[in-house]
Amino acid sequence: MEVDPGAGLHYLDSASTTFPKPPEVLQAMVDFATAAGVTPGRATYDLGLVAQSMVDRCRKAVCQLFHGPRPEQVAFGHNATDALNLVILGRLWRGGHVVTTRLEHNSVLRPIAHAVDDHGARATLVPFDGRGYVDPDAIRKAIEKDTRLVVVSHASNVLGTVQPVAEIGAVCRAAGVPLCLDAAQSAGVVPIDMQAMGVDIVAFTGHKGLLGPTGTGGLCIGAGVELALTRAGGTGVRSADRRHPEEYPLRLEYGTPNTIGLAGLARGLALIEQEGGVAAIHAREMALAEELWRALTETDGVTPYCAETLTDRTPVFAFNFDGLDPAEAGARLDVDFDVACRTGLHCAPLVHESLGTAPAGSLRLGVGPLTTRADVVAGAAAIRALAAEARRR
Ligand SMILES: Cc1ncc(COP(=O)(O)O)c(C=O)c1O
Predict the structure, then answer these.
(1) Distance between Cα 184 and ligand 1 center (Å)
(2) Rounded to whole angstroms, how far apart are CA atoms 347 and 298?
(3) How confident is the model at residue 198 (pLDDT cuts 50, 70, 90)?
(4) Which residue range is the domain that position 314 belongs to?
(5) Which helix (H) or strand (E) holds 204?
């Protein structure tokens, strides 16, 4: 799955989305749309069954990837944000307490804010330590009698730190509270085993580590986890019923699905297997990331955040150049060095508040499945050159 994005660009913004998409994924979408791009499930003609079997295949692959209980417990939606809204509002629709962390993305923080403001919920936000990790014991202490949900971002989209999920899962199991993992940054990047890790719900997005297109994502839900219905609509089955069906996956699926996107996601999931699986991809990405990490940690005038080691992390790094505004530095990396990175708060304002980097935020570099050695070499050289220039100012 090698692709040249062209124009000499070194794309190091893979934490935002995987780019370019593997050609196999794009081709799978064209092939599906051309041959069987009809609505699945509802049709009485053969092509509808072909479309349904593609969706079923994708469900099965997601279930296998996360070690979910059964494919029917996988519900597809638009992205991780959509999935997290269903979980957070589905657990807090009638109020109650939620435990989360200061590492979270706005796709967790904002639905929680709405649940607090509009549904009478209460929230406790657990801090992270100086290395970027949440203490499972702090989660244990934050759980109250009416805690309805613990939601934790598996891998921080700013710091790249991978949280001790198995320990957090054990805490949640002991307290009888469902644990939802925001796996936007970890699905397809680090292995996830819901059963071994004590995770009840995985919220995933299709367009990052899973190699699929934008507009895909969803939930893998453990057996016995109850989510209130917070949306309703057409399902193509039992159309005479007044209310939305209760059973999974229909319970969490509304309207016509993004079948063309799911055809791409199914191909992306197959590619992950073809490339040796998630652990092999992670090892390859971390080996590439070392080049960037060395530049960030060994260059005078560069401050990396929570990047002491390359273990227990994804290849995502936040940093600043001393004396340079991150937005200006990001523009310089793009214009002068053809290096694409992300700057600002990265939709995680509390991370930057805790680091002391708000309101300007930081730069962020991320290695992804299609990153090449040339990309990381160019990125490292650009960091050294820009830092040297900033030191001379
Ligand atoms: C940690 C984290 N959670 C959630 C999301 C939301 O993902 P999406 O934009 O695909 O809904 C992101 C996206 O960057 C993320 O990094």
Answers:
(1) 5
(2) 28
(3) very high
(4) 10-22+277-392
(5) strand 201-205
Given 232, 247, 274, which residue is the final one in a domain?
A: 274
Q: What percent of the chain has pLDDT over 70?
A: 98
DSSP state of 346: T
What mean pLDDT comes out for the span 318-324?
Answer: 96
**Residue 170 pLDDT:** 98
Q: Which of 185, 190, 345, 351 to mutate to test the pocket of ligand 1 (most atoms within 8 A of CB)?
A: 185
Instruction: Give me the count of residues in the chain.
Output: 393
Ligand 1 touching residue 184 (CB < 6 A): yes
Residue 4 lies in a domain: no
| Ligand 1, atom 12: closest residue by C-alpha | 184
Q: What pLDDT score was predicted for residue 41? A: 76
Number of domains, the chain: 2
Mean pLDDT, range 155-173, rounded to an integer: 98
Task: Verify that 155 and 249 share a domain, yes or no.
Answer: yes
**Is ligand 1 within 6 A of the CB of residue 154?**
no
Residues 273-294: what's their mean pLDDT? Answer: 98
In this structure, are 44 and 177 located in the same domain? yes
Cβ neighbors of 276 (< 8 A, separation 6 or more) are none
**Same structural domain, 380 and 305:** yes
